[in-house]
Amino acid sequence: MSLSYSIREGLAGFKRAKFAFIAATSATAVALVLIGMFMLMSFQTNQVTTWLKQRVGEVEIFIEDVEDPVAEAIHARAAVVPGVADAEYISKEQATQVFQAEFGEGAEIFMDEPFLPASVRVHVEPSYANPDSLQMLVAEFSEWNRVSEVVFNQPLLVKVQRNLRLITLAGFLLGLLVVLAALFLVGNTIRLTIYARRLLIRTMKLVGATDAFIQQPFIVEGVAQGIMAGAGASALVWLLYGAMSGYMPHLGVSFWTLLLIGLVIISLGALLGWLGSFFSVRRFIKHVALH
């Protein structure tokens, strides 16, 4: 009986205080849109970070002057080493074409047989794209027979790692700021809606209603508002992403990722509604004057 009453009264609260309902739902939706857009940016940043680590974490294995089957065997062996994402074999002919394309006319005067050896270009997995892991891979490749030299751009990798740490820290602080602002906005709005019904709370206290009995309808109302605000915010985030992807086609977020973000936003809306209602009502009940 108590649960059905709480649900019925909680939903009926929408009609009794339409302005408060619209204000609370709109404020929650705005906060959730901010969180949703931050989630989208974080996901996109993570994709760019993964791609950048793979590009910077590149190792070049230069092979001695051997027959093609031997060089291809080194390529096949490098491709299955733990931590290697993919390996590309570059023959002498391909190296010549790359050199001529990069240096243009007159490049042939710098070329001779030992100058452009065959090589294997290795891209490591993002978890291996750090100086220590690459040093171990370079040491392992260097011990192989028929390998003349193994190189990677260590200074660039160290610089990229340092910058990525700064970006991650800045993103964490920004995300924390967005969440705190959302909590503050939602909490204050729900507190105002509860204050607008202070006479109802006082009357219920006077007739002997328990604190839990008074709280339940407000909590149901807060959760319902949060779910509706989350659904609206999810739709708006999807629309904003669609508009942005029209101008920035390189944005790569799948349908399932967008669906997951939408479900997270709706869940956060329900959680924010519950937290805001629970603490605001409890605090108001304790301080309500009965005389």
What structural class do helix, strand and pairing data support? Answer: alpha+beta
Q: Outline, from the CA principal axes?
A: rod-shaped
- In total, how many domains does the architecture comprise? 2
- Count of DSSP H/I helices: 9
User: Distance between termini?
Assistant: 30 Å
Radius of gyration: 31 Å
Q: How many beta-strand runs?
A: 4
Q: Which stretches of 5+ consecutive residues score pLDDT under 50?
A: none
- The spatial strand order of the largest sheet comes to 2-3-1-4
| Helix share, percent | over 70%
Average of the residue pLDDT scores: 76
Summarize the biggest pleated sheet. Answer: 4 strands, antiparallel
What percentage of amino acids are in beta strands? 5-15%
H/E topology pattern: HHEHEHEHEHHHH
Offer a concise description of the structure:
With 291 residues, this protein is of the alpha+beta class. The chain has 9 helices and 4 strands.
Could you give the topology of this structure?
Layout: H1 2-16, H2 18-56, E1 58-63, H3 68-79, E2 84-90, H4 92-103, E3 119-124, H5 131-142, E4 147-151, H6 154-195, H7 198-206, H8 211-247, H9 255-287
Antiparallel strand pairs: 1-3, 1-4, 2-3
Helix pairs in contact: 1-8, 2-6, 2-8, 2-9, 6-9, 8-9
Descriptive report:
By secondary structure, the chain is α+β, with helices and mostly antiparallel strands. It folds into 2 domains: 2-51 and 161-287, no CATH class; 58-152, Alpha-Beta Plaits, CATH 3.30.70. The chain is built from 9 helices and 4 strands, in the order H-H-E-H-E-H-E-H-E-H-H-H-H. It has a 4-stranded antiparallel sheet. The longest helix has 42 residues, at 154-195. The mean pLDDT is 76.
